[in-house]
Amino acid sequence: MSAEPDSWEDSVEEPAPAAAAPPKPSFSFNPNASTFSFSPGAASFTPNFVPPAAPAAVNPAVAACFDAAPAAPAAAPAPAPPAAEPKPEPAAPIAAPAPAAPTAEPKPKPAKAEPKPAKEAPEAVDEALAGLSLKDKKRIEELMAEECDEREHLNIVFIGHVDAGKSTLGGQILYLTGSVDERTIQKYEREAKDKNRESWYMAYIMDTNEEERAKGKTVECGRACFATEKKRYTILDAPGHKLYVPNMINGAAQADIGVLVIAARKGEFETGFEKGGQTREHAQLAKTLGVSKLVVVVNKMDDPSVQWSKERYDEVESKLAPFLKQCGYNVKRDVIFTPVSGLMGYGIKDPVTKEMCPWHGGPSLFHILDGLEPQDRNRDIAVRMPVLDKHRDMGTMILGKLEAGTLVRGDDLMLMPNRVPIKCAALYREADEIQYALPGENIRIRVTGVEEDSVSTGFVVCGMQNPGRGVKVFEAQLAILDLLEHKALFTAGYKAVMHCHTLTEEIEVTKLIHQIDPKTKQPMKGKKCAFVKSGSIVVCRIAIALPCLVERFADYPQLGRFTLRDEGKTIAIGKVMEFPKKKAHVTTTEA
């Protein structure tokens, strides 16, 4: 018995010696044979006791799939034992795969290198953008030429007394422009009907908070976008209740155009316009916060108590015009009146028909907005973007309105007042990524170099060339509106809350410098200014607890105007005049 039980050949041939030896040599195991290696081009194995079949032709496609040359395995010693027989010689063509070694045919692989330029293009663009600055105007002009949507963008804030119909008007605008589909409207109608508030369903488009829908009052400043053929708009739906005036200020501080919504219904207009009504305060705040144009929308003209009455419309206009003039508006040039129905959509997209309102032949609200003169924006000064909000999304994201300058992806920036260097890695407008942004755009930027926790509302993203500085003392000109009854005198030591761009800080008046004559607009001479009363104009020095970035009104109007509020009431409006050199230097060093 063989000592190698692993060989199946031996176990089969063991009984062979007992029989007569055949004339042909029996198969025997060759322990000296070379190690088996797989050769895809070799012929199939044929035992020597079986008549050999015709050699199979080598498939060149198969051979071309393997980079290894089959020449060495082809000379395998398998045909060596039957070397005496001439027939196995045809197996020699197995070396034929060697010519197939021109497997150099796969050398078309270099063709894969052709797409490389496409991959390098974005990197080259990024490098080009990273090197841009405000001085490189040629490149900015190229980017502007590539931008597909060149329509002007405007922020519109809806202001007015509570329940005037601001949210309903905003919802109707979104519906008429196709931003909300019919199915969603039907859903809101059912929800409003279940709450016995059938007329609120349009307001649900803007008021997405359940608390707002339950109370029927806007709390946060809502935001939505729509577009016409000529311009792009962002609606800022400001709350009308007096408890949420700070939220209204945050919205109006970002606005370019104001839409003052007036309810024409009997009793509602009078309530909002009387002393203490939000119609007055909102109009004053809008002018203070830089809203230069005002569209007065006389809403609810289809109400049964009005029925598109010309007498009621004229009454509203005659009472509002003198007040708006006192706020600083040029009524003939900066104020436009128009009647609408926010709930039904009359007078918004299309003009009111003659059958409905025969006495009004003016344009619709959309036509009025599209016809306004373009805003004067300075693109060539240093970047200024107050931080409105921040969050984390594959990095630190900062939201705000670009107030001045041109911001390009890749720019080096400075986060003030903490003086943290950052870099603009990406720019977004709504859901679209863009290469650059012009003043007036609401944008989101992804920045590197700062963590989300180190960014706060009220900070300002500034250009690296002229980042400004954080100050704790500045001189301002104040117009005192209406002081509190138990604080009837405005003196040094008066404390209040200042709202400037997106900044909200407590301040203290440290010194009254001089009083301004309302008629001549010149300082009053001859007497020391110890205090002033309501209706006065005074230049004073204001101190802030922490360093903040505010700018001179002459340099950056959007960052140089502010309001003062005390105990929930607006007491003064003002603008930053100067930064005292000595005081500002000392306080900055202390900070």
Q: What can you tell me about this protein's structure?
A:
With 591 residues, the chain is an alpha+beta fold.
- Largest sheet, if any? 6 strands, mixed
- Secondary structure class reads alpha+beta
Contiguous uncertain segments of 5+ residues: 1-5, 7-20, 52-56, 58-132, 583-591
Helix content: 10-25%
Mean pLDDT: 78
Shape: globular
- Taking all Cα atoms into account, the compactness measure Rg is 41 Å
Give the N-to-C terminal Cα separation: 100 Å
Please count the beta strands (DSSP E, at least 2 residues each).
23
| Biggest β-sheet: strands ordered side by side in the sheet | 2-3-1-4-5-6
Q: Please report which band the strand proportion falls in: under 5%, 5-15%, 15-25%, 25-35%, 35-45% or over 45%.
A: 25-35%
Number of helices: 16
Index terms:
6-stranded antiparallel beta barrel; alpha+beta; 23% helix; 23 strands; disordered C terminus; 591 residues
Short description, anyone?
With 591 residues, the protein is an alpha+beta fold.
Q: What's the topology here?
A:
Layout: H1 8-13, H2 60-64, H3 71-74, H4 97-100, H5 116-130, H6 137-146, E1 152-159, H7 166-176, H8 182-194, H9 210-215, E2 222-227, E3 231-237, H10 245-252, E4 257-263, H11 268-273, H12 278-288, E5 293-299, H13 310-327, H14 331-334, E6 335-339, H15 365-370, E7 384-392, E8 396-401, E9 407-408, E10 412-416, E11 420-429, E12 432-434, E13 436-437, E14 442-448, E15 460-463, E16 471-480, E17 490-491, E18 495-500, E19 503-516, E20 531-532, E21 537-548, E22 561-566, E23 569-578, H16 581-590
Parallel strand pairs: 1-3, 1-4, 4-5, 5-6
Antiparallel strand pairs: 2-3, 7-8, 7-15, 8-14, 9-13, 10-11, 10-15, 11-12, 11-14, 16-21, 16-23, 17-20, 18-19, 18-22, 19-21, 22-23
